[in-house]
Amino acid sequence: MRKVVHVMRLPMGGLFRHVRDLVAGQQEAGIAVGVVCAEPQDERAAAALAKLGAQCGLGLHVIPMSRLPGFGDIANIREVTQLLRWLKPDIVHGHGAKGGMLARLSGGAPDAIRIYTPHGGSLHYGLWSLEGMVYLGAERLMRQRTGGLIFESGFSRNAYRAKVGKPAAPTTVIHNGLSEAEFELIVPAEDAADFLFIGELRMLKGVSTLIEAASRLERPVRIRIVGAGPDRAQFERMVEEAKGLARFEFLGAMPAREAFALGRVVVMPSWNESLPYVALEAAAAGLPLIATKVGGVPEIFGPLAARLVPPGDAPALLAAMTRALSDPAGISADAERLHGRIREFFSATRMVDAVDGFYTRLLDMREARREIALAGRAGGAARPGLTGAEH
């Protein structure tokens, strides 16, 4: 039986969602799976992690991890090394900057292939920023420790080449996928707001651009903001200071499928993204979606990518929101087309099969190298010494 250990940091967000879907699909396919991660930060994450643990044939292993690099990483590498020595996996799959570092620098399973999926992570940093020099420099050093790279978007693969360099291992692009149940259409509630934002309340998610654009609308609208994050208080102050007819409601965090009924049009005004699950989930639920042209979002929209809005551009976002209010039939038609595209190209089954196919390719390559090495050693040992006749 094939054995895979996934390593990540926090059990939250799209990265955690991706790992959960992989674990479920891999266990169902007969692969023994284990997960290493940090402690959950709230009850909701703890409940999701407990559910994941029940699916892990190789166990769920929770250890303290810090977000930033530091001396704690040394202890983490030691702990993961001991764990891998015990589990003896065929594949160690690191997710995100911290998970990728631990998967590649930990020992304990010398024959395991180390695979890395950035999920944006280090690739979000600029080349010449202080963070970029640290994180991207570390990525360059770890290239030779990487047995394979899985990118969730073509955008991320291009960013890796531009910021880190040419990969030293095989690479592939495998888009995130959704379960069949997530393609069931959601009908907005009778009291649904005009617009709905779902995401972490951080500046890079573009909430400030949404507030600025909505404040310029020439008719009263309701906007619900679902999520939690470090910049919520700042966004609430921006709303208090904003002029205009828009009314905002901050509702806190909740599951996306539960939140979708609370609005008629989903707005994703991010300044930076990789391949966001909320865009996939909203489209799969059949809701109209206004999004920015960042990261892998154009890969989600495909032929509809012309509708995407430049990031940080409040007038352009205002125009898209105005169209949504004045042309509901048009945006509904766009939503129907996008729903069909997501169902065809972004299923969880397709994603799991592609990941396992990449694992198989790398394992086959490893076996081929071993056979060549064994044949070379056997040939060298069997070569007869030169005889007098051969002289």
Care to describe what's here?
- The protein has 391 residues and is an alpha/beta fold.
- The chain folds into two domains: 3-177 and 349-375, Rossmann fold (3-Layer(aba) Sandwich), CATH 3.40.50.2000; 180-345, Rossmann fold, CATH 3.40.50.2000.
- Helices cover 45% and strands 15% of the residues.
- The protein is built from 14 helices and twelve strands.
- It has helices spanning 13-28, 43-53, 72-87, 96-105, 130-142, 154-163, 207-214, 232-241, 256-259, 277-284, 297-301, 314-326, 328-345, 348-382; strands spanning 3-7, 32-37, 60-62, 91-95, 113-117, 148-151, 171-173, 193-198, 221-226, 246-252, 263-268, 289-291.
- The strands form two sheets. It has a seven-stranded parallel β-sheet, sandwiched between helices.
Short overview:
The protein is an alpha/beta fold. It folds into two domains: about 200 residues, Rossmann fold, CATH 3.40.50.2000; about 170 residues, 3-Layer(aba) Sandwich (Rossmann fold), CATH 3.40.50. Helix content is about 45%, strand content about 15%.
